Amino acid sequence: MANEAVTFHWHGMLQTGTPWMDGASMVSQCPIEPGQMFTYRFVASPQGTHWYHSHHGAMRRSGLAGAFIVLPKEGTQRDDIPQVEQDVVFLAQDWQAAVSDIQLVTEMEWFIVGFSAKDGSTGTMSRTYDGSMSTLEPPNNKALVNGKFKSFSKSDNVNEEAVPLETFNVTNNTYIRFRMIQSGITGEYKISIDQHKLLLVGTDGEDLVAVWVDYLIINPGETYDVIVFANSTAGNYWIRLETTEVLDFFYNPIKPKVSFAQLHYKEAEVALPDSEARKCTQSEPCVMANCHWSQEAISRWMPYTLCQPINEFKSTQQSISDLPVPVPRDLEEFQEVFLNFHLAGITPMTSRPSVNTIHYKSPPVPLQVNPDIANDESVVCNNKNLEQCGEYCQCTHVVKLANQKVTQLVLTAEDGLNMGTAHPIHIHGNRLYVVKYGLGVVNESSGLLQGPNQDIEYSPDYRFANWRNASWSNGNVPDVNLIDPPLKDTIVIPYKGYVVLRVKTENPGFWFMHCHLDTHMSVGMALVLQIGETDDMPHPPSNFPRCLNYPANLEPDSHSKSGSNEQNIEGKSRKDVDAFMQLLEENVTSSYYQDDHSPYDMKINFTWIILMIVIMVFFMFGIILLALMLLSRYCTGAFRSRKGYQEIGRDEQVEFAN
Fold it and tell me: Residues in domain Plastocyanin-like (predicted)?
């Protein structure tokens, strides 16, 4: 990178023994600065379909991502699924025409004040099947497949004729594995192939008992392995990527956006397909995999379609044998944590993405490289040490989990505002079993959400949650699947619902956990899981890059104190001064990457918005008045130049605060 820092996260890799190679900026490592070289070295595990992407700034929005496939060892291939003749990567992402940094700031302005100060544009939100807000962030242009697309949606700023159509060439009567990766920064897609079913065989690198489905919902951060049997009439068929928005903000029906790729049989001529989407009937119903809405909601919009959530899929017996579902022998081996991923605020206009009402802020130095900072309560916080701090709490949110314990994470998405979305949550360095899935309360006739799931009760500010039925505590939740649940590293929390996850904490380190919707993560919907004590964690190599703070109270050594400065600088102590100046330069450079300098550090509430508008009005009047005064002075010849700098005496100590 010529002028931007970067890190790379190896999405899905456990990084056992090498947590500093995880690539989470300011959690596992310092950003790699322009012109520097950094080598990632780790054991590629587990096998399966994974991916890599930038984890610093907004570069993933510009496409800085790719597939990372870990092949199985010889002789360990599955024998319960068809033998595939072709293996292809299907990298799906949304495409925003604007530059990534500009687009991110624009979306944040929409998120905060409802309009962009740059161009005056506004973001129009839409809703999904159950009335929850769509995860699409306007303006959503197109879905790309391996960097290409075709769409028949109207667009004023895209020359579609210049963009090629992604085509997958297949041979008749063969099986093709599609390694589907959702690398987008906003929005889920419903993927289907005209006149072809999808055999779902794996997710997030883990094997599933094979199931034939018609539609696959895939969210940012997720991967799925599907096998397609090319047994239709030789020809050309649309591969559809459809958004899940079916209502506008005011609940009026709208048409989803659809982008396309192409399945081409080599036995036929290449041409744009004229195929039609699958028709679901009572005699031949469809199946929608990874569905996080109610059956009532789906039936309203897609009659004769079965909504199958992720918890209904099953891990293979081989997967369970390799990694059994953890069950505690006693309460000493068990811990349970509730995490609410929600919009924290009093009103929809003042709500911000958070976890347990806390907005994540990166630490000044990486936790994995400087673990002592995890004990600094002026930087790190959580619900145990954070006093009531009003509408917005911001800090480096760290939740500590004991090592070698059966851990149950209960993830919720409730804010009381009826303005939230489902959230795709990615947990670094861990794989977790999805043992239970709870949806919000819906109207049986309309399928629209009416309220939160009643299994869980919340504090008035939604910072704390617990089981409504106290008998469910200590791991006694009914109807959990502890036999063969699916194993995931990225899981979608349904809006006003919950997900119960099980894992044995046996990978000590600091692991980032966040919403994979880019704007949500950037504004603060994230936290760090600290697994184990710092003494339990492996230590990074002695030559591993470190970035430090340069606090204002850092004093030069005695050689550079006043009274002998000139002698020391020009005399025999010059080496000491050079060493100090080098340290100063390194620390000032590295401190640039703290979140204190980030455009994401926002604490604006409704009162401040009004105050800002008033200030802007007075500011404009002031500018006009100043212009008139300057014009008057210029016309009378009284305009005089002024110095644009501050004089500093020699040997005077200075301090620059940025």
Answer: 3-74, 134-246, 382-532
Residues 6 or more apart whose CB falls under 8 angstroms from that of 137 comprise 107, 110, 123, 185, 186, 187, 517, 519
Name residue 516's amino acid: H
CA distance linking residue 516 with residue 518, whole number of Å:
6
If one counts every other C-beta atom within 10 angstroms of the C-beta of residue 566, the result is 11
Per CATH, the number for 78-308 is: 2.60.40.420
Record: fold of 325-536: Immunoglobulin-like (2.60.40)
List the beta bridge partners of residue 207.
202
How far apart are the C-alpha atoms of 326 and 332, rounded to whole Å? 14
Could you report how far apart the first and last alpha carbons of the chain are, in Å? 24
Q: How far apart are CA 289 and CA 192, in angstroms?
A: 11
For residue 393, is it left (φ>0), alpha (ψ between -120 and 50) or beta?
A: beta
Q: Using CA atoms in the order 627, 630, 634, 638, what is the torsion angle rounded to 10 degrees?
A: 170
Domain with CATH 2.60.40.420 in the chain: 1-76, 78-308, 325-536
Name residue, tokens 């340069």.
Answer: 550
d(CA 241, CA 239): 7
What would the 3-class secondary structure string for 558-598 be?
Answer: HHHCCCCHHHHHHCCCHHHHHHHHHHHHHHHHHHCCCHHHC
Percent of the chain exceeding pLDDT 90 equals 65
- Tokens of residue 260, six digits: 């396309």
Q: Which CATH architecture has domain 1-76?
A: Sandwich (2.60)
